[in-house]
Design goal:
single chain; alpha+beta; 4-stranded antiparallel beta sheet; 18% helix
Length: 56
């Protein structure tokens, strides 16, 4: 499992309003988990300082 940070944004490309640390087996799984989270209508998923995906 790898550590990911999910940043909830005010709007696409906007300010971060909340962060959440999550564990996932892959980048794809981390983005899918963020997409399934009702608290994440607009989010970016980061791992080791690199953006691996987004939800809009």
């Amino acid at each position: 499992m790898k550590h990911y940070r999910v940043n909830k944004l005010a709007k696409a490309g906007g300010a971060i309003v909340k962060t959440k640390d999550v564990l996932a087996s892959s980048d794809k799984q981390a983005v899918e988990d963020a997409r399934a989270d009702a608290d994440c209508p607009v989010c970016e998923v980061w791992q080791a300082g690199q953006k691996v995906g987004s939800v809009t």
